[in-house]
Write a structure and sequence with these properties.
Number of strands: 5
Order of helices and strands: HEEEHHHHEEHHH
Bound molecules: FE2/S2 (inorganic) cluster
Largest sheet: 3 strands, antiparallel
Number of domains: 2
CATH class of the largest domain: Alpha Beta
Shape: globular
CATH topology of the largest domain: Sufe protein. Chain: A
Strand content: 5-15%
Distance between the termini: 8 Å
Length: 228
């Protein structure tokens, strides 16, 4: 995890984002942007606002890494396919609050993000806008990302566009222990960086050694996807 996020965001009156992850990935500092979004969350669904907020799609996801939950509502302009407004609520931690707050800004700014672009948002995009998160908190940014995809899918379902629904799908990789690619993804999000780390968590490939090349390929893929 040598690559460190340095992209500067456009948020005003805040100190420049700094590299908040130490070289060995053990840092626990938070950028000013993270703190600002945590203390002043944007587009948060306030108590009692649910009945008033008209929405076209809703996504609800939980994190197996920590048991927290996220709900995100989107209002879509049918003609332009842009997300005109959104709200969210979470039982997640401060990093999840900051990540989803900044994500909500990203999807409604400049007249709203197109659905196809919203589906392309990756956790790295959220981390870049936040000025980074400590490694052990990266999984918190995935909650908002997944809730957005679920909300867009819900919109496609409600509008009869079933062919456009994007499914994550999981595939069994270790046939002895029935371990899926999704389990490996979660292990990487929880901090595993190589085969040894993943095996410590899952015992994957121990009883099914033929699966090891695919497991290593998946670890590389998820490391690249979430940590760049
Ligand atoms: S969302 Fe659960 S620890 Fe951050």
């Amino acid at each position: 995890m040598k690559k460190i996020i340095k992209k500067v965001t456009k948020t005003k009156n805040l100190t420049k984002p700094v590299d908040i992850r130490s070289n060995d990935g053990s840092g626990w500092l938070y950028s000013d942007i993270v703190k600002d979004h945590f203390f002043n969350p944007r587009n948060f669904m306030k108590q009692g606002e649910e009945e008033k907020f008209k929405y076209d799609g809703m996504g609800r996801v939980g994190s197996p890494a920590c048991g927290d939950e996220m709900v995100l509502w989107i209002l879509v302009d049918e003609k332009s396919e842009k997300i005109k407004d959104c709200r969210w609520r979470t039982f997640g931690c401060g990093s999840a609050i900051a990540s989803t707050s900044v994500l909500s800004e990203m999807i409604v700014e400049k007249g709203g993000m197109k659905l196809e672009d919203a589906l392309k948002i990756k956790p790295q995009d959220i981390l870049a806008r936040l000025g980074g998160l400590p490694d052990r908190k990266v999984h918190c940014s995935v909650l908002g990302d997944k809730a957005l995809q679920a909300a867009v899918n819900d919109y496609f379902r409600k509008t009869g566009q079933h062919g456009r629904i994007v499914t994550a799908g999981s595939k069994i990789i270790d046939k002895v222990l029935n371990i899926t690619d999704h389990d490996i993804e979660e292990a990487v999000l929880e901090g595993a960086q190589n085969l040894e780390d993943v095996q410590k968590k899952l015992k994957v490939g121990v009883g099914d050694p033929e699966a090891i090349p695919e497991i290593e390929e998946l670890i590389r893929f998820y490391m690249e996807k979430y940590y760049g």
